[in-house]
């Protein structure tokens, strides 16, 4: 048997419930949550979709560590037969294990972390050179699936609600290095504002906990470099 | 809610950099005040310099040199991280900063005793 402590309720009114869940071979944390909902408490709310680490919707705090529940075997994280499951840190809770991802995605938009096309929809697409240094740098970050784990792991986000966070800044960095993006100066302006890349203290928790082994800290360091270069260039040209 | 474990090297490097900076900021006013005594009250300064022979003060000086060195080399690592092309060896560089700081402060301590 596993002793499972689940955080319930909302940000304003949270409590914990204890469940005894049968231990199984090759059991994932998502299996545990699903078992609780199907066998004990159908009111338990949680979010998942693909179950194979592709969609990024099932991330939760497991014994205090942000993880994809679908790709986390209980045997790897259980401590003395006990699992503590809570919603992702640094985000408002809608109910139980479901967080409101709006602040997370609003910050993607605020960081200009969206494609600004160089060509219209009726024109041929702009070819990219796969082995150019810029493309190689962009490729390092494009496997992000927006699961929010880096955002939950980041202490700078916890201390500064305006900080755009590792995921949004990494996406902005991939676009800055993308030859098909037409708004380089817009991205640099967006990421150098009040909540921008210069808030990062390079603690590296984003890279430490990213389940896709990406390194947002590297992307943010790149943004810091490019924003400083752009500022110096502006000063020289003024 | 439980916080994520921070026992990974770069988080420890971050906190060491902050704490060393804070300690040095607290130490510097006392340091400058003591130096000013050379002009305003030389006898009092001599009294403090005699105190510096005490073994506990020598250990404290070792700590101070360590903090100064680890803050300087840790700061150089951060400046390199932000202004030079990316290096994947950040953990090694952070450990190196601590190693060099220990070497310098250890050498200082051995010469002092």
TrEMBL record, chain A:
Question: According to its UniProt record, which reaction does this protein catalyse?
Answer: a quinone + succinate = fumarate + a quinol
What domain of life does the native source organism fall in? Bacteria
Q: Does the keyword Iron-sulfur apply?
A: yes
What detail does the entry give on cofactor binding? Binds 1 [3Fe-4S] cluster. Binds 1 [2Fe-2S] cluster.
Which biological pathway?
Answer: Carbohydrate metabolism; tricarboxylic acid cycle; fumarate from succinate (bacterial route): step 1/1
InterPro entries named among the record's database cross-references? 2Fe-2S_ferredoxin-like_sf, 2Fe-2S_ferredoxin-type, 2Fe2S_fd_BS, 4Fe4S_Fe-S-bd, Beta-grasp_dom_sf, Helical_ferredxn, SDH/FRD_Iron-Sulfur, Succ_DH/fum_Rdtase_Fe-S
Q: Which Pfam families match?
A: Fer2_3, Fer4_17
> Which Gene3D superfamilies does the protein's record reference?
3.10.20.30, Alpha-helical ferredoxin
An annotated Gene Ontology molecular function: metal ion binding
Per the UniProt record, which EC number(s) apply here? 1.3.5.1
The UniProt record lists the 2Fe-2S ferredoxin-type domain at: 1-89
List the GO biological process terms.
Answer: respiratory electron transport chain; tricarboxylic acid cycle
The UniProt record lists the keyword Signal: no
Q: Which family does it belong to?
A: Belongs to the succinate dehydrogenase/fumarate reductase iron-sulfur protein family.
| Assembly | Part of an enzyme complex containing four subunits: a flavoprotein, an iron-sulfur, cytochrome b-556, and a hydrophobic anchor protein.
What's the name of the protein? Succinate dehydrogenase iron-sulfur subunit
TrEMBL record, chain B:
Q: Which GO terms describe its biological process?
A: tricarboxylic acid cycle
Cofactor(s) it depends on: heme
Indicate which residues the UniProt annotation says bind heme.
Answer: 71
InterPro entries for the chain: SdhC_prok (IPR039023), SQR/QFR_C/D (IPR034804), Succ_DH_cytb556 (IPR014314), SuccDH_FuR_B_TM-su (IPR000701)
Which segments does the entry list as coiled coil? none
Q: Where in the cell is it found?
A: Membrane
Recite the UniProt keywords alphabetically: Heme, Iron, Membrane, Metal-binding, Transmembrane, Transmembrane helix
The cofactor note from the UniProt entry for this protein is: The heme is bound between the two transmembrane subunits.
GO molecular function annotation = electron transfer activity; metal ion binding
GO CC terms for this protein? membrane
- Give the transmembrane ranges: 62-80, 92-110
SUPFAM superfamilies according to UniProt:
Fumarate reductase respiratory complex transmembrane subunits
- The superkingdom of the source organism is Bacteria
Q: What is its quaternary makeup? A: Part of an enzyme complex containing four subunits: a flavoprotein, an iron-sulfur protein, plus two membrane-anchoring proteins, SdhC and SdhD. The complex can form homotrimers.
- Family to which the UniProt record says this protein belongs: Belongs to the cytochrome b560 family.
The function of this protein is: Membrane-anchoring subunit of succinate dehydrogenase (SDH).
Q: What is this protein called?
A: Succinate dehydrogenase cytochrome b556 subunit
What organism does this protein naturally occur in?
A: Roseovarius azorensis
Lineage per the UniProt record: Bacteria, Pseudomonadati, Pseudomonadota, Alphaproteobacteria, Rhodobacterales
């Amino acid at each position: 048997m596993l002793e499972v402590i689940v955080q319930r309720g909302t940000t304003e009114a949270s409590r914990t419930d204890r469940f005894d869940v049968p231990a199984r071979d090759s059991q994932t944390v998502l299996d545990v949550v699903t078992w609780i909902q199907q066998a004990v408490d159908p009111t338990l709310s949680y979010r998942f979709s693909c179950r194979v680490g592709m969609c990024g919707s099932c991330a939760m705090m497991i014994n205090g560590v942000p993880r994809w529940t679908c790709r986390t075997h209980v045997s790897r994280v259980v401590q003395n037969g006990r699992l503590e499951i809570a919603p992702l840190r640094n985000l408002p809770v809608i109910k139980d294990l479901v967080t409101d991802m709006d602040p997370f995605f609003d910050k993607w938009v605020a960081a200009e972390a969206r494609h600004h096309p160089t060509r219209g929809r009726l024109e041929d697409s702009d070819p990219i050179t796969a082995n150019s240094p810029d493309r190689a740098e962009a490729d390092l970050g494009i496997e992000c699936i927006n699961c929010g784990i880096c955002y939950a792991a980041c202490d700078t986000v916890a201390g500064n609600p305006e900080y755009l966070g590792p995921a949004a800044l990494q996406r902005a960095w991939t676009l800055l290095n993308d030859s098909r993006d037409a708004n380089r100066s817009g991205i640099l302006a967006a990421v150098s504002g009040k909540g921008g890349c210069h808030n990062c203290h390079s603690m590296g928790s984003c890279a430490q906990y990213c389940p896709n082994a990406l390194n947002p800290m590297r992307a943010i360091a790149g943004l810091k470099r490019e924003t400083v270069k752009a500022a110096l260039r502006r000063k020289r040209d003024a | 809610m439980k916080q994520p474990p921070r026992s990974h090297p770069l988080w420890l490097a971050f906190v060491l950099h902050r704490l060393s900076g804070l300690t040095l900021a607290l130490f510097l006013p006392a340091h400058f005040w003591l130096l000013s005594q050379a002009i305003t009250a030389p006898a009092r300064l001599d009294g403090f310099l005699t105190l510096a022979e005490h073994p506990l003060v020598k250990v404290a000086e070792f700590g101070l040199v360590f903090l100064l060195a680890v803050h300087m080399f840790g700061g150089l690592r951060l400046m390199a991280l932000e202004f030079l092309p990316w290096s994947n060896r950040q953990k090694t560089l952070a450990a190196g900063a601590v190693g060099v700081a220990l070497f310098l402060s250890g050498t200082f301590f051995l010469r002092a005793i």
